[in-house]
Amino acid sequence: MDYAVWIILFPLIGVIVNGLIARKWPEKVVGWFASLMIMASFVVALMLTIQLAGMDPHHRAMEVKFFSWISVGQLNLDFAFLIDPLSAIMMLVVTGISSLIHIYSIGYMHGDSRFRVFFTYLNLFVFFMLILVLGNSYPIMFIGWEGVGLCSYLLIGFWWEDMQKATAGMKAFVVNRIGDFGMLVAMFLIFKHLGSLTFSEVYPAAAELWGHHVDAAPVIAITLMLLLGAAGKSAQFPLYVWLPDAMAGPTPVSALIHAATMVTAGVYMIARSSMLYMLAPTSMTVVALVGAFTAIFAATIGIKQFDIKKVLAYSTVSQLGYMVMATGVAAFGAGVFHLMTHAFFKALLFLGSGAVIHTMHGALHHVDDHHTDPQDIRNMGGLRKKIPVTYWTFLLATLAIAGIPGFSGFFSKDEILASTFAHGSYLPYALGLIAAVITAFYMFRLVYLTFHGDYKGPEGSEEGIHESPKVMTVPLMILAFLSIVGGYVGLPVVFGEHAHVLKGWLEPVFEPAYEAVHYHPHHPSIGMEWMLIATSVVAALAGIFVARNMYITKGLVAKSDKEQTGFGKVLWKKYYVDEIYAAGVIKPLIDGSKVLWQKFDAAFIDSILVIGTAKTVRWIGGGLRKVQTGVVGNYAVMLVVGVILVLAALLLR
Amino acid sequence: MFDNLIAGMHVGRVLPEILVVVVAFAAILIDIIMPRGRSTRGVQVVSVLGLLMVIAASFFQRGDTGQAFSGMVMIDNYTTFFRILLSAITLLIIGVSERYIEITRIRIAEYYLMLLFALFGMLLMTMGQDLLIIFLGIETMSVSLYALVGMTRHKHASNEGALKYFLLGAFTTGFFLYGIALVFGVTGSTNIVDITVFLKSAGSETPIIAWAGAGLIMIAFAFKAALVPFHWWSPDAYEGAPTTITAFMSTAPKAAAFAAFLRVFYVAFGSMSDGWTMVLWWIAVVSMTFGNLLALRQDSVKRMLAFSSITHAGYLVVAFLTFGQQGASAILFYLVVYGIMNIGAFLVAIAVNRNEDDDKGYHFDDYKGLVYRRPGMAIAMLVFMLSLAGIPPTAGFFGKYYIFSSAVSAGFVGLAVIGVLNSAVSVYYYLRLIVNMFLTERDEETEGRIFWTGEMAQVVLICVILVLLIGLFPDTLLNAARASVAALL
Amino acid sequence: MVIGLNHYLILAALLFTIGVVGVLTRRNVLIIMMSVELMLNSANLTLIAFSHYLLNAVGQVFVFFSMTVAAAEVGIGLAIIVTIFRNTESLDIAKLNLLKN
After folding, report:
1. Measured between alpha carbons, how far is B52 from A25 in angstroms, rounded to an integer?
2. Which residue in A90, B119, B456, C60 has the fewest CB atoms around it within 10 Å?
3. Sequence-ordered list of residues with C-beta below 8 angstroms from that of B448, at least 6 positions apart, any chain
């Protein structure tokens, strides 16, 4: 087991070599070195998983201790990894997808002046992500949690020439701090009530303490605070605002960090804390509702976006909502299953979109057009014949996310919906089902507008559109393969009692949580299961049919910005969330102190929830500044006021 | 008879303090003997070597604990902890000063003397077991600091900062002395042990005069630790002072103030804790919030750090008012961590500052694209900023973690929530610097020459290593802090 | 009327208050310093009164030290005032507000 440490050492070596030593190395060497380190890490993950599989199913968990980390009073923490079926899935997904995206990036980032720095950050990200999923206690998880946040921030703002992108990075970082706040408070409370922070000690202690008395106030507080953390990282309503903006970073970053791995950390954390959540049914309901609402809310916004990456971004938020919803109805396994399949097809979608943007960019450059947006799908169309590999892989991923039977997304999404229904959570089920229709619709809208119909870009630029190099298309093909077969590890019950391999694999992890509250996961009857499957399929087909009818049969062309009207405009404007925050929080303040404002409207802050709050805070700070007058006489007066207050408080106790 | 008296004084136990005074006077002599131009070099060497000896003496003397001077001072693990911390901070500051006082045209050996005298005062504060000693310690430290703030005599800002600090400091001394007089009147003693015994037996019958006295003494400590609403002097004095002195003032005197504050309130006024924890609850809240809100609005890095130091003092009060071992050890831990990261941050600020004679220096814009000019320096500053913001795996994270978890354990959940929220807000202005260093282009217009010496590089490197090392392996330091606190409680 | 402890304490408290008010209302640095001295000496008076009535010499010993400290403070204060007067030719604290906000 001692070799387990290599899983994080390889990426770390990559960081050190690329960050410090490889200054003069050629691009190819740097890129392949970084990729090889991650692949080596993947091999280690595979070996660990195989070893794990060889163990007795009920004792499938290994703690690998590296050193005694903190030992102070009651707080005893080892720096150790917990390798169990759940973390095994996570580390395979993280290292596997990362390897492919590293390779893809060699092609995508070709020629960038900061190629080496990019790969250094990317390796650093993998390092922290592995610490996040492997840590055996909340503080270690939190180190990874903050580390990936930092890397994400550095990578979103990677092309800092563009101020807007730096702002997006900042927004991501600050929103995540709100989530971190929840994590920290949850950690304090866990330690206060359970006396430990190590997973293997916290959960039995929690079962002991609250097992006969579910919904105790402390456990509700802990789980809601953890939910706040998860909402920040996994972009749940209302903290989702940073994720769409985060797409400002290079596309491989969007694929890796903001779709496949980092954003699923919140789901992982909830699944990891399944014991605590099972002990707090009230929090579970909140989790399910937040997830379901996020799923449908983001999906509707996705309908009216024109930026190819924005569509995928909202779709990611929506799919994360599904995963969170699954954990909220105690279907932790289903949540993790969808996390995995989503990692495959969403990474593929992003990489595919990256290939499209890459070639569009080149094509526009070819005709010297610097005004047309290479990411706007209204400028595309008919790319199917020009870039067939990209098209076909993109289509496969779209079929997967839409939930067409046989593709991975179908199995996982269907399981979530079926579990939700069986759990008796009909409202989340209904929201989830509608979201499924919408998902199928906007994804096919994206495919039709991008790849079908006629090319709508500037005259002559069509000639410049070429298929991407092998180093980019091969990862696409591998991911396409995974997007299809990835679902077969979790066949529905209708195919037999043990058809769901993944469920059997994950069972030992969630079993104690179910047992603690004597919960028996509900299984729909076989007939009901078929009904639910049929409903899902009909939902997906309905979405596709509408999209086909609109964009192929009727040949509708997406409207330009000015023609947006009615509810469509509301969606296009993302429900005016940004504007609402602006009007509710900022406007009153602006009116109050216009002069103060203009002076301090710092250039690198533009946005809303966070930045709106930040501005509020700054504004109050401005008022307080007047107190610090600089005149020593005033200071003395205020000091005496302080003296009087302190004495009054003490004497009139 | 005299032999007995002298033996009862245990002079050997205050060897480090004696050494500090000896070094200070040796420095005076060298300054007189050596020719004017070269004397600072000699003074620097003597001070550095002397301080190394002080640290070594404190370390090797740690086993010989007990009272000295008939109970006027107490040498225990707690004293040793602060002796080493305070001497080390002074050493770091003196270590980087030689070239700095050249370019700021201070150029006089008194700079070193005042630092050494301030150190002597601080050591008295940490060991004093009698209000007299603590009073003398505070005054020795303060008088030296007034002079240090005004060291750059030709600069108006320096004069003004010194004057403000002096006037408000002397004003507060009045309250402090009056408070001591009241406590003396009630308890009949100025010795902490006697006061403790008296107040404990008085219990709920504690006379109102004693409460007033305790309140006035609390105000004096709050003033020295720069807590709202007694902080008014600090931003202006910090900005006006030579930056090495700002780095010093925001770390060592604050640590010494908390050392004495802890001893007086945890021991002498321990029986009155339900009263003062309530007052400190409010002081903690306003200090954290006020410091943060104003730090957000600064365009000068030096002033931002000054306001953020008020916030950090507020965090320390959060741990203070838990009135328990966990909280106290969190304070000691955080004082060390804060000292390291803050000195590091100030040194980088000195290096990047465009023009030392410019009153409007230390601008955020000076840092634009620093990573492309001086990557090492930018990464060091990144580490310090992350640590100040409390992001793992830096030392600052664990410092904050222990503070807030001690508050939650003691039942102050609301306060901990306010604290963590404040710490989330503070990320904003630390991040602003990171954005400027890493995510903006170089701007030739705002670039000045970098002032960087070998000594500064060494000290910054030490600080970076310590911040990361403590962040990864915090328990050595925390156990030392706990052992020190155990001596106190 | 017999002069007792309370009379001394009340006198000291009044002097202290006068000192505080002086600091708050005066703009000339020298007068402010004098007011501070008044505060310190009223505290000294309190210490001595207690010392006398408690038959405990500690208070009087304390006063020796505090007077020395006060002298040192005045010394450094005057030095600061001299340098500031050289630079600005004014002793009005209301005009010294370069550092603010």
Report:
1. 45
2. C60
3. B352, B353, B354, B355, B366
C-alpha distance from residue A227 to each of A201, B228, B270 (Å): 21, 34, 40
Tokens (6 digits) for A629: 């007058």
Q: In degrees, to the nearest 5, what angle opens at C-alpha B289 toward C-alphas B285 and B295?
A: 150
Residue A331 amino acid letter:
A
Of C19, C93, C99, the CB nearest to B240: C99
Task: Print the domain residue range for C15.
Answer: 5-95
b/e map B303-336, b = 16+ CB within 10 Å: bbbbbbbbbbbbbbbbbbbbbbbbbbbbbbbbbb
In a domain, C24, yes or no: yes
- As given in the structure block, the two tokens for residue B95 are 């270590």
**Residue from C37, C69, C92, C93 to probe the interface with B (highest B Cβ count within 10 Å):** C69
Task: Please provide residue A35's backbone torsions phi and psi, each rounded to the nearest 5 degrees.
Answer: -65, -40
- Give which of B296, B326, B469 to mutate to test A binding, by max A Cβ within 10 Å: B296
Q: How far is B277 from chain A (nearest CA, A)?
A: 10
Could you identify the residue written with the tokens 């740690």?
Answer: B62
Q: Are A41 and A130 in contact (CB under 8 A)?
A: yes
Q: In the block, which residue shows the tokens 């599904």?
A: A322
* Among chain C residues, CA nearest to B239: C99
Q: Tens of pLDDT along A321-354?
A: 999 999 999 889 889 999 999 999 999 999 999 8
The ipTM value here is 0.95
- Is pLDDT of A410 > 50? yes
Phi, psi of B66 (to 5 degrees): 145, 180
User: Does residue A608 surpass a pLDDT of 60?
Assistant: no
Percentage of chain A modeled with pLDDT above 70: 85
In a domain, C79, yes or no: yes
Dihedral angle computed from the Cα positions of residues A85, A90, A93 and A97, in that order, rounded to the nearest 10 degrees: -160
**Would you call B409 an interface residue with chain A, using a CB distance cutoff of 8 Å?**
yes
Using CA atoms, how far apart are residues C24 and B139, in angstroms rounded to an integer?
A: 22
CB atoms within 10 A of CB B296: 26
Question: What pTM was estimated for this model as a whole?
Answer: 0.81
Contacting residues for A43 by C-beta, under 8 A, at least 6 apart: none
Whether the Cβ atoms of residue A547 and residue A444 lie closer than 8 Å to each other: yes
Q: Apex CA B74: angle with CA B68 and CA B76, to 5°?
A: 120
Of the ranges A590-604, A638-652, B3-17, the best mean pLDDT one: A638-652
Distance CA B126, CA B17 (A): 11
| Cross-strand partners of B363 | B300
| Side-chain half-sphere exposure of A491, counting CA atoms within 13 A | 10
Tokens of A61: 């968990």
- The torsion of the CA quartet A31, A36, A38, A42, rounded to 10 degrees, works out to 150
| CB under 8 A, 24+ apart: contacts of B419-422 | B419/B284, B419/B288, B419/B314, B419/B315, B419/B318, B420/A181, B420/A184, B420/A185, B421/A181, B422/B288, B422/B289, B422/B292, B422/B311, B422/B314
Query: Domain coordinates of chain A in residue numbers?
Result: 574-651
Q: What is the mean pLDDT of chain A?
A: 82
Q: How many CB atoms lie within 10 A of CB A565?
A: 10
User: What is the separation, in whole angstroms, between the first and last Cα of chain C?
Assistant: 54
| Residue type at position B444 | E
Q: What is the CATH number of the domain that holds C51?
A: 1.10.287.3510
Question: Does residue C83 belong to any structural domain of this protein?
Answer: yes
Task: Say whether C93 and A632 touch across the interface (CB within 8 A).
Answer: yes
Closest Cβ–Cβ partner in A628, A639, A646 for B215: A646
Tell me which residue of B239, B207, B214, B225 sits closest to B358, measured CA to CA: B239
- Coil, strand or helix at A618: helix
User: Which residues from C are below 8 Å from A625, CB to CB?
Assistant: 101
* The total number of structural domains that make up chain C: 1
Structure tokens at B476: 């050595």
Say if residue B460 is exposed, middle or buried (CB neighbours under 10 Å; 0-12, 13-18, 19+). Answer: buried
